[in-house]
Amino acid sequence: MPTSPSVAAGPAPASPPRAVRGRRADLIVVLAALALAVWVTSGMWRDPNVRTITVNSSDQALFEWLLAFGGHALTHGENPFFTHLINVPDGVNLAVNTSITVYAVVFAPLTYLVGPPVTFLVILTLNLAATAIAWYLLFSRQLVRSRLAAGVGGLFVAYSPGMVSHANAHLNWTAGWLVPLLIWRLFALRRPEHWLRDGIVLGVLVAVAFSIAAEGLFFTALALGVFLVVWAVHPARRAEARAALPTFLRGLAITAVVAGALLAYPLWLHFAGPQRFHGTGFDPVVHSEDIAAFGAFPRRSLAGQAGLGTSLAPNPTEENSFFGLPLLLLSVVCFVALFRRADPGRRATLWALGVTAVIFSVLSWGPVAKVDGRRTDVPMPFDLLGHLPVVNAALPARLALVVAPLIGLLLAFMVDRLRTHPPRHRSTEAAWALGFVVALLPLVPTPLLTDEREPIPRFITAGTWRDYVSPGEVLTPVPVAVDVYPDGQRWQAYALAHRQGEFRIPAGFFLGPGGPDGRGRIGPVPRTFSALMDQAGRTGLVPIVTDGTIREVRADLAYWRVEAVVLPDQVHGAKFEVDEDAVRRTATALLGRPERVDDVWLWRVPRS
Description:
four-stranded mixed beta sheet, DUF6311, single chain, elongated, 24 helices, transmembrane, DUF2079 domain-containing protein, membrane
């Protein structure tokens, strides 16, 4: 008889133990997550101190300032939730802004060592990688058996179009690693033997999440609330939910007590402190998701690079859905396939996932529907909720960010099913593989667009400013610092991080009171001096200056207690080129001839 190939070859080598294969899979996912994070942020790694995110350099400058201020507040015993360093004389309530206090404190040594721009880039890169790893761990340890399935789901969520879009300088929204940790610890509250400890851990995590991404925490709580209600009322899970409810509520009460104690002061500042506001100055219709955007492709993706991207988002940082039609179709097919083969308990989970996805998709459409860039008069459910406290401070388009993790979980479930119950026919297996490739390949992210920004003048870096501004007194760049002119806060961040001392600035980039109907606005209400400088910088035209104008300008400078007005040779405009010559001629008409100090023009302002 002929010898069989298996016998001739000898005994087959033993497969590696499951634990070894698991660790190997974990390592591959971690390396893939880090590689993608560096890839997305690669444009800034060439020179973090010079490169800036093209489409959102204003937010980048703001977060760099927050990192510098947080470290300064920690080392100087100052209030990390309220500051008078900007928006002189009123100050800014940072508790109602995105203060990222935990990041500022934890990374303070790095900020002092290498400066805020590098710290910003390190956190942004780690945020993306940690988000993928955290979702992978939740999926692989709690929800699916296949590490491949967990890897597909985790990497998709972390590098979904919405996350890559918010990687354009949003350190709060890219901290998506908080969400799987919150989910993990919330469901741990069901354990009767550890409800006290689990409640304390979740309470601390909630406090951390509030200090990094309060809006994201709010959305996570809403999504989990909807999911749990739908899951618990399903007939297949009703008895289980009823049995776990007493323990769950005890743990949740401990969570509320711990989080409330840790956040008592920030919450008071948020809702009752000085310089608070209710709602924002952002138009919810403008910042709502276009229905067609769900089937569109994002700009920072392979599909976008091929010319298939769209401009359906209000700006490049708010592409919160943009899943593309292939992925939407794949998600529906996965849902149907899983639902048909699921036991009643799994069907309850799938039903809750589907309902949550639909609810948050519809809410993201805002007060009225928009389709392919055209606003309709069809009212949407958000119109009924958008006036409620807290909800009125959220941008409806961002509710679509909840959908990406739900799709990621659906993909993980499907891959897990295919791995544990392979299709009978190879053609079916190939069709599924092709479907995943067609749906996911176009969404592979491309690097963020970056550019060089104007350098911080030597007048600041050399500390020369201290010869012209008394300790703790006011210096203002021109144009005056606001979101589109971030120089003032960039300079201040440099001075704080390099321990040069403090100078204060009028205005700044922040959310504060003063908007229509008592809502918030970006920066303070403009005064004559700031409006004239802005006009000159934008248009290149020197305004007509009268004696009355000069009196108003002097009153503004006295109100702010400005000692020095400074114009660098190159002004960074976050949205447009600034005409420095027109600004200089306007300031000269208002304040007289400047003096040249290092690489800036300087006007001294005598105290009246």
